[in-house]
Automatic annotation (TrEMBL):
The chain crosses the membrane at residues 12-31, 43-65, 71-91, 103-124, 130-148. It is a multi-pass membrane protein. NCBIfam families: NAAT family transporter. Belongs to the UPF0056 (MarC) family. The lineage of its organism: Bacteria, Pseudomonadati, Bacteroidota, Flavobacteriia, Flavobacteriales. InterPro entries: Multi_antbiot-R_MarC (IPR002771). PANTHER family: UPF0056 MEMBRANE PROTEIN YHCE. Coiled coil: none annotated. It comes from Leptobacterium flavescens. Its main location: membrane. It is found in: Cell membrane. This is UPF0056 membrane protein. Keywords: Cell membrane, Membrane, Transmembrane, Transmembrane helix.
Length: 190
């Protein structure tokens, strides 16, 4: 095992920015008012299982269809770039339909372990050791669980403007990560 604090913190930060659980608090509050109770434990565990499973079998699925990890990392960098643009500019480039139930769908998937998160995992896998990414996943899932449990209190504390500022800061971090992923992997394709 090669646990590296730099790799753990980098992967945890990437996942934190992509999952954007703080920015999702308004969505969580909306789901809670529609459905009543959100099972924080269930949503967190299912999201963790999806992310770890995709970390291991995602590459095999890609190989099956003839795509290498570097190509996927470049595609992931482009998706992360657009997610960052959404966060920074406060616009919606991709929109899901409003769901009727909130237990697993859409909370665990696609809100927590969505396309951006899964793409980021494979992009991270192209650069970092798997065990460090798993520790990053665990850190994020613990944080997601805490946020789900305390979402009403966090919303009251931060207010709309506080959540907006946090989204923009993580948008800029995500943009820088997208550029780094793109430049490091695009050269290996040629």
């Amino acid at each position: 095992m090669q646990l590296d604090i730099k790799e753990i913190s980098a992967s945890a930060m990437v996942l934190f920015a992509v999952i954007d659980i703080i920015g999702s608090i308004p969505i969580i509050i909306g789901l809670r008012s529609k459905v009543g109770h959100i099972q924080s434990e269930k949503a967190s565990i299912v999201a963790a299982v999806i992310m770890v499973a995709f970390l291991f079998v995602g590459e095999e699925i890609l190989n099956l269809i003839g795509i290498n990890v570097n190509s996927f990392a470049v595609a992931g960098a482009i998706i992360i770039f657009f997610l960052a643009i959404e966060m920074i500019l406060g616009i919606r480039l991709y929109k899901d339909d409003a769901p009727e139930t909130a237990s697993i769908v859409p909370l665990a998937f696609p809100l927590i372990a969505g396309a951006g998160t899964l793409t980021s995992l494979l992009s991270l896998r192209a650069e970092y050791h798997v065990e460090n990414i798993i520790v990053g996943i665990v850190i994020n899932i613990l944080f997601v669980y805490i946020v789900l449990k305390m979402s009403k209190r966090i919303e009251k504390f931060l207010g709309k403007s506080g959540i907006g500022v946090i989204r923009k800061i993580f948008g800029v971090i995500l943009l820088a990560i997208a550029v780094k992923l793109f430049t490091e992997n695009v050269s290996q394709l040629f």
